[in-house]
């Protein structure tokens, strides 16, 4: 989409036509600032529908790094029916929110379906997950929203940088005729 700010108004123009009978969610992240440069303390969400009802599914949780809450971490949700093998390093998410000051996040107005959630701290500030650089959190389960459970139990993420470098031999020397000393990178 394209957007145009004018004072305290924003106009959003979508590149494609909106789908029929679908709930759309717009999230203003914690990086947003008001006219006095104050940041939002938590993400603000607006939902609207192109059909007769707005979806009510909800997923919540907490994101931490070194056991401390993370402000402004990205949390991405993938609908596994539409994207059966989500990959935050290469596939854009279906939904995005950011964590508030207390590390909490909340997806609202989701359709009843199965979701895989990823959380990461965007070290490069490029709004994408960079493997080996950005600390990532992955839950132990997918979230299933159904008629019987439209609100999930909270998810907990402990972020960590994934080690993507292969081990290699940094040096080798003969100790004597039957022994070699090998030094590895790890």
Question: How is this structure best described in words?
Answer:
The chain is mainly β and 186 residues long. The chain has strands at 2-6, 9-13, 23-28, 44-49, 57-65, 68-69, 74-79, 95-98, 104-110, 114-120, 136-137, 143-144, 155-158, 169-176, 179-184. The strands form five sheets. Strands 7, 8, 10, 11 and 12 form a five-stranded antiparallel sheet that branches. Strand 1 and strand 2 (9-13) form a beta hairpin. It is elongated and about 80 Å long.
Helical content (DSSP H or I, runs of 4+)? under 10%
Strands, total number:
15
Q: Biggest sheet, in brief?
A: 5 strands, antiparallel
Radius of gyration: 21 Å
Mean pLDDT: 90
Number of helices: 0
> Which segments are poorly predicted (pLDDT under 50) over 5 or more consecutive residues?
none
Distance N to C terminus: 45 Å
How much of the sequence is in beta strands? Answer: 35-45%
Shape: elongated
Backbone structural class: mainly beta
Order of helices and strands: EEEEEEEEEEEEEEE
Question: What is the secondary structure topology, with strand pairs?
Answer:
Elements: E1 2-6, E2 9-13, E3 23-28, E4 44-49, E5 57-65, E6 68-69, E7 74-79, E8 95-98, E9 104-110, E10 114-120, E11 136-137, E12 143-144, E13 155-158, E14 169-176, E15 179-184
Q: Which short descriptors sum up this protein?
A:
5-stranded antiparallel beta sheet, 186 residues, 42% strand, mainly beta
């Amino acid at each position: 989409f394209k957007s145009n700010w004018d004072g305290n108004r924003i106009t959003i123009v979508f590149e494609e036509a909106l789908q029929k009978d679908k709930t759309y969610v717009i999230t203003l992240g914690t990086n947003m600032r008001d006219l006095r440069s104050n940041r939002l303390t938590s993400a603000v969400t607006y939902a609207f529908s192109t059909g007769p009802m707005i979806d009510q599914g909800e997923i919540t949780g907490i994101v931490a790094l070194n056991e401390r809450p993370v402000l402004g971490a990205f949390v991405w949700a993938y609908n596994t029916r539409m994207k059966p093998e989500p990959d935050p390093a290469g596939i854009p998410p279906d939904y995005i929110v950011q964590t508030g000051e207390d590390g909490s996040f909340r997806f609202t107005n989701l359709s009843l379906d199965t979701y895989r959630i990823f959380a990461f701290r965007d070290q490069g500030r490029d709004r994408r997950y960079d493997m080996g650089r950005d600390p990532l959190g992955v839950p132990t389960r997918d979230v299933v929203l159904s008629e019987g459970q439209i609100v999930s139990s909270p998810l907990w993420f402990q972020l960590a940088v994934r080690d993507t470098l292969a081990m290699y031999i940094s040096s080798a020397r003969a100790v004597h005729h039957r022994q070699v000393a090998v030094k590895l990178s790890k």
